[in-house]
Amino acid sequence: MTEIAILGVGLIGGSLALSLRKNEDVHITGFDVVEENLRMARSLGVIDSGTTHLAEAVAQADYIFLCAPVGKLQELISFLRYTPLKEGAVISDTGSTKVSVMEHSHGFAQRGVFFIGGHPMAGSHKSGVEASHDRLFENAYYVLTPAKDTPTAVTDRLRELLAPTHAKVVVMNAQRHDEVVGAISHFPHIIASALVNQVASYSEADEMDWYRSLAAGGFRDITRIASSNPGMWRDILLNNRPVMKKMAEDLKQVMERISTLVERADGPGIERFFAEARTFRNALPEKKKGALQPYFDLYVDIPDEPGVIARVTTLLGEEKISITNISILETREDILGVLRISFRSHEDIEKATHVLKDEGYSVYERE
Ligand SMILES: NC(=O)C1=CN([C@@H]2O[C@H](COP(=O)(O)OP(=O)(O)OC[C@H]3O[C@@H](n4cnc5c(N)ncnc54)[C@H](O)[C@@H]3O)[C@@H](O)[C@H]2O)C=CC1
Ligand SMILES: O=C(O)C(=O)Cc1ccc(O)cc1
Predict the structure, then answer these.
(1) 194 lines ligand 2 (CB under 6 A)
(2) pTM given for the model
(3) What distance in Å separates the CA atoms of residue 166 and residue 5, rounded to the nearest whole number?
(4) Each residue of 120-170: pLDDT tens digit?
(5) What residues contact 364, with CB distance under 8 A and at least 6 apart?
(6) Which residues contact 141 (CB under 8 A, 6 or more apart)?
(7) 123 alpha carbon to ligand 2 midpoint, in Å?
(8) What φ, ψ does residue 315 adopt, rounded to 5°?
(9) Full set of structural domains in the chain with CATH
(10) ipTM of the complex
C-alpha cells in the first residue's frame, strides 16, 4: 500500500488526489486547515481519510504533496523539517512558483527524505475541492524541479506515481521555470487585470455605462483570467518578484514604442507590431484536448423534505434543460445537503438558475 498525504485539499490537491487514486493500492490522507474542506473531500470520494493534525497526516506517508497556497508553502516545509517522517519519503509541492520553494527545500536528504518541487501547469479560475477533477492535468505540462541532492531514481519514482495524471512531466531548473512561467502565466494575469481596471475606471465615469454593454469578444478573451482568485495571484506575484519587475519594465518600453508609432501615425510600423505578434501566436503548439473545458455546475441547497430531488429534476425537465450529471453533497448541518447539477453549457445554467430561483430554491455557482 502506498501512503499519500495531500496537504491542502483544494482544486489542485483534490484533482491530484483523484488522479493518484487510479494507481493500484494507494491510501490518501488529506490535511487542511479548514475541516469543512476535508468533510467535502471525503463526501466527494477525493480522499480516504482527513485530519487537521499535520504531524498525523504525514507520519506514515511515502509521498507528501504540498498543495496549499504559495504563501503557505514555506511554513509547511519548515514544519516538515522538524516532524518525524518515513525514511525514503518524497516531498513535492504544486506551487505556481518554484525558486522560493526550492530555497527552503534543503536539509531533508540527511534524514533520507527527498524534495522535488512540482508545478502542474493546468488549472481553472475556480478554487476549492468541489471544482476538482480527475482529468485536470491531462495533456498539460507538469514541471518537476528536484533538489540538488535528490537522486534521479527518486525523481523517476515520482514520475511513475504521476503517470495516471496523463500530464507531460518535464524536469527543469527552478530559476528557468520562474522566468518562463512568469512570462506565459504570471505576467498575463497582471495585464488582464490592469486592462479590466482601466476599463472599469472609464466605465464608472460613463453615465450610460456603454463600456459594460459593449464589452465584446476581444475584451472578454483577453481578460478571462482576471476572474481568477486574487489571493492566489497576490502570493504568486510576491514569490516571483524579480521576474515580474523586469517584465513590467520591459512592457513600459513596448508601450512607449506603440505610443510613438501611434503618435507618428506610422502605419507600416503599427502593422509590423501586429504582424510580429501574429507570427509568434500562430506558431504556438496546438493545445491538446484535456479536461480543461469549463465546468457547468450549479449548486442547489436542498431542504430535508421527501421527493425534493425529483421535484428539482422535474422542474428542469419541464423546461427542457438537460442535465449531464447530478450528485448530492452532504456537508451542512442545517440542510439535507447540497445538490450539484452539471449542465452542457452556461446558457443551461442560466436557465436552470432562473427556474429554480423562481421556485424559491437557493442556487449558486461556486466561483
Ligand atoms: N488554481 C490553479 O489554477 C493552479 C494552482 N496551482 C497552485 O496549487 C496550489 C493550490 O491552489 P488551488 O488548489 O487552486 O487553491 P485552493 O484555494 O483551491 O486550495 C487550497 C487549499 O489549501 C488549504 N490551505 C490553506 N492554508 C493551508 C495550510 N497552511 N496548510 C494546508 N492547507 C492549507 C485551503 O483551505 C484550501 O483547501 C497553489 O500553490 C497554487 O499556486 C498550480 C497550478 C494551477
Ligand atoms: O486559466 C488559466 O489559464 C490559468 O492561468 C491556469 C493556471 C493557473 C495557475 C497555474 O500555476 C497554472 C495554470
Answers:
(1) no
(2) 0.83
(3) 20
(4) 999 887 889 999 999 999 999 999 999 999 999 999 999 999 999 999 999
(5) 298, 299
(6) 121, 167, 168, 170
(7) 5
(8) -55, -45
(9) 2-172 (3.40.50.720), 176-282 (1.10.3660.10), 297-364 (3.30.2130.10)
(10) 0.98
